UniProtKB/TrEMBL annotation:
Alphabetized PANTHER family for the sequence: CYSTEINE-RICH REPEAT SECRETORY PROTEIN, GNK2-LIKE DOMAIN-CONTAINING PROTEIN
Name used for this protein in its record: Gnk2-homologous domain-containing protein
Coiled coil (UniProt feature): none
Keywords: Repeat, Signal
Length: 201
């Protein structure tokens, strides 16, 4: 698919978010690749290429598809600029459970709420709009623990839609992944991810 090939070429030149269209009007196809802001450029390219290969193998007969690999997303279909929708939601949940489930259960929503205030904050530590990363401690002095979390929206959706998307995935995270040591909720427009180790590399 030419749109996917063009997205790959663009990602090799500039990581982050890239899109391409192919065809005319009724037959137009738009492809987009989106990497987590904490990912290094080479890792972004590698992730996008692997994800495109997966889509070509699994979804060759589909007119619209999306695939997440935790650190990057590739989607294709009819062009939908500024279209906020949640037709695709994926959950990645660690089988390992925290020894302090109640403590983690309080910390995850608190950290998510804190990050949502930073996503578009001009005073935030990130230079990438629509992205926030931080950590929060919980547990006891005898058994201290730290949760690391990232959340991000694709750059083509409006801030209000970003906030709505992040609110949705934050809620999903609490309902799907209670007590998990690591988890992520992924959609075409935003994601949230946490772990007990700094995953930025």
């Amino acid at each position: 698919m030419s749109a996917l090939n063009e997205v790959t070429s663009k990602t090799e030149k500039e990581s982050g978010y890239n899109s391409a269209t192919f065809g005319t009007k009724d037959n137009e196809v738009r492809a987009a690749a989106f990497c987590a802001a904490y990912l290094k450029p080479n890792d972004c390219v590698s992730c996008v290429k692997k994800t495109i290969t997966l889509l070509q193998e699994k979804c060759s007969n589909h007119k619209e598809a999306a695939s997440w690999r935790v650190t990057c997303m590739v989607r294709y279909g009819k062009p939908t600029p500024n279209d906020y929708e949640l037709w695709f939601v994926a959950h990645e949940v660690s089988a390992d459970k925290s020894k302090d489930v109640p403590g983690l259960g309080r910390t995850v929503p608190d950290l998510a709420s804190m990050l949502m205030k930073k996503v578009y904050s001009p005073r935030g530590p990130s230079t990438v709009r629509g992205y926030a990363y931080d950590d929060m401690h919980y547990g006891t002095s005898m058994d201290p623990r730290t949760v690391y979390m990232a959340m991000q929206c694709t750059p083509y959706i409006l801030p209000r839609d970003c906030n709505a998307c992040l609110g949705r995935v934050s809620g999903d995270l609490q309902s799907c992944c209670k007590g998990a040591m690591a988890a992520a909720v992924l959609t075409p427009n935003c994601y949230i991810r946490y772990a007990h180790a700094d995953f930025r590399g």
